[in-house]
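Quick one, C-alpha cells below:
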C-alpha cells in the first residue's frame, strides 16, 4: 500500500541455523568417554549377572556362602579385566588383525591371551586375598594353582577373543562411517628413454640417465558408506597419526588412510606439507596463525578454525614461505 494508509510492511528476519556436523564429527569429542562408559557398563552388568547365577548354583548344590562372596569374586575379576583393556587396545594396535596380517599377527595374540590370563588370575586372586584378610577370613583356591590356571584360561581366552573382536569390529564401523581413503593407482611408467645414439663417445656416454621425477598423487579415493568420491591432495589441511592410520582433515571432515605419517608424507609435496609434531603435519597454505606458547611450543590456528599442536622441535619448518598468510 502507499504512504499514509496506516499500514506498515512487516519486517522479516531470517536466522540461519548453524550447519549440522556429520555424526563422526559430533562423536569425536566424546569418543573416549563413550568407550570407557561402554566397557564399564558392560563389565558391571556381567559382574552382577554372574554373581546372581553363581550364588544360585552354589546354594542349589548345598554349599552355603554369604551373598557378598560371589559379588566379591566377580567384581575382583571384572576390575582386573577393566584395567587390562587399555593394554589389549595397545597390543591390538601394535599387531592389528586384518586379512593381510592375520597369518603373522595371530600367533602374537595367542601369546597375548596367555599373558592376559596369567595377569588376570594373579590380579583377581591378590584382590580376593586382600579383601578376605581385611574381614578376618581366608580365601582358598578350589585346587592346585596350575589346575586353576587351566580352568581360567579356557574362560579367559574366550574373553580375550571377544574383546579383540569387539575392537576390530568397532574400528571397522568407524572406518565405514568416517570414510577410508587410499591412493589412486599410479599411472604406468613410460618406457625408458635410450641413453643416446650408439656412436656417442666420451664421458657423457657413460653417465647414468637422470632419475625420473617423483610422482605424487594429486587425488585420493575415499570410500564412505558404500559411496566413493575423490579428494584433492591440495585440499588436505592437516594430518594426524592415529595408530596404524593417518587421519586426513579435509574441509572439516576426517578420512583415514592406512599408512604411517612418515610414509604418507613422502607422497605429498614437501614444499607444502611439513611435519610440525610427532603426530601432526600441516598444509602450509592452510595455516592462518601461529600462536607461540611459553613452553617453546606453538599452537597453529588453521583457516578452517581448527587448531594443531606444534612442538618446538619442528618450529623451523614453519619458516618456509607461506606458513602463515
Amino acid at each position: 500500500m502507499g504512504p499514509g494508509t496506516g499500514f506498515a510492511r512487516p519486517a522479516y528476519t531470517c536466522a540461519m541455523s548453524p550447519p549440522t556436523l556429520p555424526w563422526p564429527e559430533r562423536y569425536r569429542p566424546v569418543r573416549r568417554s563413550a568407550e570407557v562408559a561402554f566397557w564399564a557398563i558392560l563389565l558391571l552388568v556381567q559382574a552382577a549377572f554372574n554373581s546372581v547365577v553363581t550364588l544360585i548354583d552354589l546354594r542349589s548344590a548345598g554349599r552355603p556362602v554369604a551373598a557378598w562372596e560371589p559379588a566379591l569374586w566377580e567384581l575382583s575379576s571384572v576390575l582386573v579385566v577393566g584395567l587390562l583393556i587399555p593394554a589389549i587396545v595397545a597390543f591390538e594396535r601394535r599387531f592389528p588383525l586384518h586379512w593381510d596380517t592375520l597369518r603373522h599377527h595371530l600367533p602374537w595374540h595367542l601369546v597375548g591371551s596367555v599373558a592376559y590370563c596369567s595377569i588376570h588370575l594373579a590380579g583377581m586372586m591378590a584382590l580376593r586375598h586382600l579383601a578376605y584378610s581385611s574381614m578376618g577370613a581366608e580365601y582358598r583356591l578350589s585346587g592346585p594353582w596350575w589346575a586353576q590356571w587351566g580352568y581360567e584360561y579356557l574362560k579367559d581366552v574366550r574373553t580375550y577373543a571377544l574383546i579383540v573382536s569387539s575392537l576390530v569390529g568397532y574400528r571397522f564401523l568407524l572406518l565405514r562411517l568416517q570414510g577410508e581413503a587410499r591412493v589412486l593407482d599410479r599411472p604406468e611408467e613410460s618406457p625408458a628413454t635410450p641413453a643416446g645414439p650408439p656412436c656417442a663417445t666420451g664421458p657423457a656416454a657413460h653417465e647414468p640417465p637422470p632419475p625420473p621425477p617423483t610422482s605424487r598423487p594429486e587425488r585420493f579415493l575415499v570410500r564412505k558408506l558404500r559411496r566413493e568420491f575423490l579428494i584433492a591432495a591440495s585440499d588436505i589441511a592437516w594430518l594426524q597419526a592415529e595408530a596404524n592410520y593417518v587421519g586426513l582433515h579435509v574441509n572439516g571432515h576426517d578420512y583415514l588412510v592406512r599408512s604411517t605419517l612418515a610414509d604418507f608424507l613422502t607422497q605429498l609435496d614437501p614444499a607444502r606439507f611439513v611435519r610440525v609434531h610427532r603426530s601432526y603435519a600441516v598444509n602450509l597454505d592452510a595455516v592462518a596463525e601461529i600462536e607461540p606458547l611459553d613452553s617453546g611450543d606453538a599452537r597453529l590456528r588453521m583457516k578452517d578454525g581448527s587448531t594443531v599442536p606444534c612442538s618446538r622441535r619442528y618450529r623451523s619448518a614453519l619458516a618456509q614461505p607461506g606458513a602463515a598468510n
